[in-house]
Amino acid sequence: MNTPAPTDFLIRDELALLGSLVPLDGANLIELGCGAADLARRLVAAHPGATVLGLEVDARQMAKNRAQPEGSWAGIRLVEAGAEAIPAPDASFDGALMLKSLHHVPLDRLDQALAEVHRVLKPGGWLYVSEPVYDGLSNEVIRLFNDEGEVRRAAYQALMRALANSGPAGGWEMVAERFFEMPTRYRDFEDFARRMIDVTFAERHLDDALRAEVQARFERLARRGEDGQCHFTRPMRIDLLRKRGG
């Protein structure tokens, strides 16, 4: 799992990739681990009739979301809940999104979370899972203070178990798997630290020695662009599953 297939393409806007794979106009969707719901907000603005139920377990992130102007959430309803216990009836949604969130589900609840997603999808409904691949230069920096190798591997294995346990009469079928690179850029190391280290929900506390090591590796591996910023690309994998029966 840690050795990706050859990258298919560079993509700057994952919403465009999503829209090329599944119908979004008029879709009733759920996003598990929505965070600030940036993609969801752009999705409902760009696709007439689309709605999103956004679930997020982090109370601080939800407080930030609720503090934003009410108009920011047109077409989106927010609920503080996790993927392993979705507060929605069976067969409620046309599609589900997990954008870099599956590996944040507690390891002992991964199978239950995927079972819950299956439950709330309509027959023929789709699950779009987007996960970082444990590879690339940005990972070489981030793993110094946040090594996600184990949890990303466990998330992928849970997806494969869900597929393996699916018979012809029910469960999941794989529609597509794609690999791509997503560009990221930072003004400087302090910008990187603000966005990736000094985030309140992560509660990371790096001592001076580790912070200096992270900065040294960041400066060594970053590519300085013509804009003066520090550029990386992040390898990603998407798995598109469909609930059988549609």
Topology:
Blueprint: E1 9-10, H1 14-21, E2 28-32, H2 38-46, E3 51-56, H3 59-66, E4 76-80, E5 93-99, H4 110-120, E6 121-132, H5 137-142, H6 149-164, E7 172-186, H7 189-196, H8 208-221, E8 223-224, E9 230-243
Parallel strand pairs: 1-7, 2-3, 2-5, 3-4, 5-6
Antiparallel strand pairs: 6-9, 7-9, 8-9
Helix pairs in contact: 4-6
Work out the radius of gyration.
Answer: 18 Å
Which regions contain 5 or more consecutive residues with pLDDT less than 50?
Answer: 1-6
Overall SS class: alpha/beta
Subunit organisation of the chains: single chain
What percent of the residues sit in helical stretches (DSSP H or I)?
25-40%
What count of helical segments does DSSP give? 8
Order of helices and strands: EHEHEHEEHEHHEHHEE
Largest sheet: 9 strands, mixed
- The geometry reads as globular
- Estimate nothing, just give the exact number of structural domains: 1
Distance between the termini: 30 Å
Can you put this structure into words, describing what you see?
This protein has 246 residues and is an alpha/beta fold. The protein has one domain: Vaccinia Virus protein VP39 (Rossmann fold, 3-Layer(aba) Sandwich), CATH 3.40.50.150. Helix content is 33%, strand content 28%. It contains eight helices and nine strands. Strands 1, 2, 3, 4, 5, 6, 7, 8 and 9 form a nine-stranded mixed sheet that branches. β3 (51-56), α3 (59-66) and β4 (76-80) form a beta-alpha-beta unit. It is globular and about 55 Å long. The model is unreliable at 1-6 (pLDDT under 50).
